[in-house]
C-alpha cells in the first residue's frame, strides 16, 4: 500500500564518514527500486536505481544493495559531505508495470555534521 | 537527465478560491504523470495518475471533483485545487514517467507550496 505518514527517522553522521540508509520494502512482486534524495523545499531527485536481478549497483560515491530474501534495500554514501544532508526515500515498483506507480518508503533524514 | 518543471513554485490564496498548478516535462515526452502531496516530515502520498488524453486515476480517498487533473499534451499536466481550504495547504509535487524504454523511472518537479489562508 502507500506510505503512511510518520515522523521521519534521522541519521546523523560526521563529515567524511560513510552513511548507510536502510529501507524495508513491502511488495514481493516489486522488481525495480529507486533511491531519491529530497532537499528541504524541493522535489525528490533521482540518485540510483537497481533491478531485482542484481544485488548491488554502484554510482558515484553511492552504492545500493538489494536483499530480496528479506526485502531490504540500503543506500551507502561514501565520504559523506554537508551537501548530502537531505531526506532520502526508497521507492519500489514493478519494472514493466505500465501503470507506473511508485510506492515510497517513509524516508530517512540524513544530517551531516561538519 | 530528464527535467520536470512546476509552476508556480509557491502560491498563497484565500479560502474558497481555486488554484491551478502546472507540471511540464521539458526535454522528453511523458504519457504518464503523477501528482503527489507531501506534508512536513512525511513521505510522498500519491494522489492521482494522469494519462495523456484520458481521465486521471485517483487514489482512494482523493476527491476527484476537488483535485481536477488535466493532461492535455505529452508534456503538460495540470492540477487544479478547487474551492481550496486551509487543510489543503501542502507541498504538491508532480512527476513524469519516461515513456521510452522499459524503465519505470519517474522524474520529479521541484514542487509547489500551497498556502490557503
Sequence-ordered SSE layout with sheet pairings:
The complex is a heterodimer of chains A (114) and B (117).
Chain A: E1 10-14, E2 19-24, E3 32-38, E4 45-51, E5 56-58, E6 62-67, E7 72-77, E8 86-93, E9 103-104, E10 108-113
Chain B: E1 4-7, E2 10-13, E3 19-25, E4 32-38, E5 45-51, E6 57-58, E7 67-73, E8 76-81, E9 90-97, E10 106-108, E11 112-116
Parallel strand pairs in B: 2-11
Antiparallel strand pairs in B: 1-3, 3-8, 4-5, 4-9, 5-6, 7-8, 9-10, 9-11
Q: Round the mean pLDDT of chain B to the nearest integer and report it.
A: 91
Outline the low-pLDDT stretches of chain A: 1-5
Q: How much helix, percentage-wise, in residues of chain B?
A: under 10%
Radius of gyration of chain A: 14 Å
Shape designation of chain B: globular
Tell me what portion of residues of chain A adopts beta-strand conformation.
over 45%
Q: How many angstroms does the end-to-end distance of chain A come to?
A: 38 Å
Radius of gyration of chain B: 13 Å
User: Which range best describes the helical content of chain A: under 10%, 10-25%, 25-40%, 40-55%, 55-70% or over 70%?
Assistant: under 10%
Q: What this model shows, in words?
A:
The complex is a heterodimer of chains A (114) and B (117). Helices cover 0% and strands 49% of the residues of chain A. Chain A has no helices and 10 strands. Chain A has strands spanning 10-14, 19-24, 32-38, 45-51, 56-58, 62-67, 72-77, 86-93, 103-104, 108-113. In chain A, the strands form 2 sheets. In chain A, strands 1, 3, 4, 8, 9 and 10 form a 6-stranded mixed β-sheet that branches. The model of chain A is unreliable at 1-5 (pLDDT under 50). By secondary structure, chain B is mainly β. Helices cover 0% and strands 51% of the residues of chain B. In chain B, a hairpin with a 5-residue loop joins strand 5 and strand 6.
